[in-house]
């Protein structure tokens, strides 16, 4: 069959170029990536063979082979795993299907142009998330040939490229099942850390460092052609295969015998991440149901954290991988956790349906969730900086747990911390908040909003600031939801400062405020009634406020109504949201409101008053970060008024 030439997809070409022009000074990782792919392919074949006994693939000696030819300067990484069909080769190798690739490349370019090495390094750390492991071969090779045949198919595919824009593909009749990747190695250049990757010593060193735990045998074969004959070695120069990995499951080895680096390499293998994990958790459960687990927190969130991405941990039964992403083992709000769970007593061909009901799976899921939550809490107490970095990225996800995991609610709350008006730099736990509560304070006050600035500057905050009352500043979308799901903490109810009446201070102060308000109410009664009618389409009530000190007006929701943020969010999720009117509160201490009252008392039919009513309402919306329904009309009314003051 003749070979067809194809062009790399634009993004794929750009990522490939980035790999070639050495983002990574450490080029040794190419072997880690290719071995990792081979190991995945073997796992996939075994899992598929377990489920489908008509597959007809030989699974009796699954292994990885690395063949190094010193004279030809080639290195071949071979597996007899699942292989790829022709379509898969085109789809997986020549294309980067992940959304956001173009955006990522743009950001990386900008960070580099701006000469910001930290940002560029952070962006580079993300490159692994695009599934570019295979491309790393081009860091050390000037030509790569992939020969593959998918299990169950009769023909194979050969893919060849020099990594410069195009690749060729041809159908091959006699390819063995599985995949082999042959690299034509670039000349050795020790100064650029391009080592001699045909050297058995070097290969063993890399495999030991990055891939020792791979459960499949990794066999090394060296070929040295004629030179070897002269050295008195075997004819043809091929050595006997030598297994070069110890194949010991890291999770089964005592902690004292495993280095952090080894744990990190396992994490990289299973998570397809290129950066070290932030945290490693070991669980060793003994007794009637034995299992071991190694769990990791990534340092950076995967890009698909909030969409349907890979999630769950790998499930092994007695060292045999039976499921790559076992969602049943971690609740959805801990979906960022990666790792391995190895159980002693589960059936090898357990199906997803059975998994959900399996008592042992449920037991492990509970224990894992508790352990993860207690680890986060411990991190918060003992390693605040690390916790801060973690919480910034993963806090919004963990807080989702408050919506459904009632059993672990206290543990989740103990892991949570929130931005607060008490300290702009430091977050606080609910426990810390409660300990700081003022005498007579009955509630945990919070405000939700789009940003810290919007919340802090919103008029709702005024009286609380005045009285020195701490308010939690909740700006993640999920905050809109969990505050309604968590009724109280240590007997203190959570209360939004943008909802209902604000009743602040001691009993005495509250009584006094009430009396003052009642008196003002009489004074302002006519204006309030008139405004209520005037703005009746927009608001359900106009009343005097006890939360404002400097702003003229604000809008609040009824205690059981959804905030505007929540309404927007639910609408975006496709939920019908019936219109619900809000309440306009006025500050009688403000000159504008006092003036309005006077003007209304002098001549209630003055047409200017109607425009003023609209302006006051529009300003209240703007002050909370919202906007008037008809912004151009609002500006027009305002401009006309201002013009007259000049
Ligand atoms: N040896 C192999 N056998 C079968 N399929 C393979 C093999 N190598 C690669 N593939 C397929 O090609 C895909 C792309 O591989 P690549 O290494 O570029 O990305 P990845 O494995 O998804 O992510 P990464 O390697 O960055 O962690 C793989 O997901 C896999 O489906």
Write the layout of secondary structure elements.
Blueprint lengths: L3 E4 L2 H11 L8 H23 L12 E6 L4 E6 L6 H8 L7 H13 L3 H9 L15 E9 L6 E6 L4 E7 L5 E8 L14 H12 L6 E6 L1 H6 L11 E2 L16 H12 L7 E7 L5 E7 L15 E5 L2 E7 L11 E6 L8 H6 L1 H24 L1 H15 L2 H4 L4 H7 L2 E3 L2 E6 L1 H7 L6 E6 L3 H5 L5 H5 L5 E3 L4 H7 L2 E2 L2 E5 L10 H28 L4 E6 L8 E4 L7 H9 L9 E5 L4 H12 L4 H17 L7 H15 L1
Parallel strand pairs: 2-8, 12-14, 17-18, 17-20, 21-23
Antiparallel strand pairs: 1-6, 2-3, 3-7, 4-5, 4-7, 5-6, 8-9, 10-11, 11-14, 12-13, 15-16, 15-18, 19-20, 22-23
Description of the structure:
The structure is a single chain. This protein is α+β, with helices and mostly antiparallel strands. The chain has 3 domains: 4-244, Heat Shock Protein 90 (2-Layer Sandwich); 251-388, Ribosomal Protein S5, domain 2, CATH 3.30.230; 513-645, Heat shock protein 90, C-terminal domain (Four Helix Bundle (Hemerythrin (Met), subunit A), Up-down Bundle). The strands form 4 sheets. Strands 1-6-5-4-7-3-2-8-9 form a 9-stranded mixed sheet, covered by helices on one side. A 6-stranded mixed sheet has the order 16-15-18-17-20-19. β5 and β6 form a beta hairpin. The chain is elongated, with a radius of gyration of 33 Å. Bound molecules: adenosine-5'-triphosphate. The site of adenosine-5'-triphosphate (ATP) has 18 residues, from α2 and α3. Adenosine-5'-triphosphate (ATP) binds at residues 33, 37-38, 41, 79, 81-84, 92-93, 128, 131-134, 179, 272. Residues 226-249 are annotated as: Disordered. Residues 353-568 are annotated as: B. Residues 1-352 are annotated as: A.
